[in-house]
Amino acid sequence: MTINWAQILFNSVVTGSLYLIGAVGLTLTYGLSNFPNFAHAELITLGAFIGYFVAERLGLGLPTAFVMAFLCTGAVGFLCYRGIFQPLAKRGATIIHLMVASIALGFVFRHSIGGAWTWKPLYFTATWSAFDLGPLRVTGLWLWLILAAVALAVIMHLILVKTKIGKAIRATSSNPELALASGINVDRIIWLTWFIGAGLAAVAGVFRAADTQVWPMTGWDIILPMFAVAILGGIGNYYGAIAAAFIIGLAENIGVVGLIALGLSTTYRIGIAFLILIITLIMKPQGLAMLFRRA
Amino acid sequence: MDILLYFLDLLVFVGIFGIVALSLNLEFGFAGLANFGKVAFFLIGAYTYAILSQIGIPFYLCLIAGALISAIFGLLISLPALRLRADYLAIAVLAFGEILRMIVKAEVWLAGGDWGISVSPVFTWMGSELIYRLENIGLVSFCLFICFLVVQLLANSPYGRVMRAIREDEIAAEALGKARAKYKAQAFMLGSAMAGVAGGLYAQYLQCIVPGMFMPMVTFTVWIMVLLGGPANNWGALLGAGLVEFFDRGANIAKDYLILPIDPSNLQYILFGALIIFVLLYRPQGLLKESPVKTKALEAARYGRGSVKNEGS
Q: N or C: more exposed end of chain B, with fewer CB within 10 A?
């Protein structure tokens, strides 16, 4: 069997794009609020379901589905922080309490979604037929996904570097007290980040859903690689996350080839991200952040 | 009669999960470690027991082997993350649990895959379900008693006070010459071993284990037990285990009798999640508070000879 390396590279870019869109919110809120939000998985799921509802039940088409998923889930993400995590942090909850609360919230969401909709997988009716592009086998959805990730990377870069809001986000992330003393409304910056992060998680959810299926575990299925992205990239580090998303995408896709060659089950695909996570923790817990010190 | 059997069954579950809750209490309550992959060590114990008992090894050796293997894995997985912040450990161990479940699911030759493994029971079925359950309660409560004793003695020993000091302020404890990573690793190993024993008992009692039993929900249920009952209080952990299991059964019974617009098993998880957020917001110390440290030196300083001497002089 000859291995089509171009295809593997392309698949890696597709996987990495999905992880990037999903993990940006995770790593930014992790950096700003100093705890990993495990309910991020359920924000992805929620986005997928809202997207499915708008596109399939209301019949408004995929573009509207993306916008609605972004806005609604963003609002939910903001409310989660405002209603639960911020009061907890104000009451002096430790990082462990915040993590447990986020897992609890995830369960509330997951089972609310399962109860309100269904636990059976749902599929988008719009199918994306594969076509050949040079040596590659691609679908339109994958191309859109890559386009979205590139657009996100560029837009977020411009926001973070050029605008006042972006500078305020970076300032708050690196030193909240100093940011507060400099007249930055730290609360508002954190709320905005939670809104955008949750909204982007929803976008990743809709992409994942349109590509595979929608069910209450949609987000949980892909949350571990996203945590690996956040940690490998350096927590709260946006540029690190971009690099890490594609590294993990590449490792997964090459790893799958390796797993097949070794005769192992391809369900171990997620295990590759886990291995990278553990190696990062042993070798360089601060992740790739050191490569992007200035950012 | 049926109600009695049902109640005894509940007691076995309370005992098994009481052991897991105690182990988490040791790790989280006393040592301040966020073990978000408790189910992984529970799984290791259960599968070790099942695989070893299949080749005819006596049950007590299987339980001990489960505890040992679980402890070794606990050490291996926690070592990279223990030096770091609590969140790294949480993520690493959570991921470890998911991977393990994937492995037992995929490796059919080892663990039977989705069909799982059947385990021959310790106690022979002597025609009476009542006696069978009573024997199981005896075995489980014996293990529970030993675990409780170990954690209780440990918590009130100098060793336990070092653990609490590390939980409260790592740097201060380090400055006093206490190697925090060593203490954390030991607490994690011991906690994992206890979870392994509980897993073995679970496999033994149910006589069949499948990967679907070891979802992350199990970890979360144990966290509810500890947080609800009161972290760093062993009676609290047991109380929490009792309450949560009781609630769990209640929801299962309600499923048959109540007609709700929402599936009760979904509702149960939603309520559990909401309950934990509520507890964290309004009563983070849980139902039973952590009891103050009791030592002879402290008592002497407060009421004992020291004050008497001062009066005399």
A: C
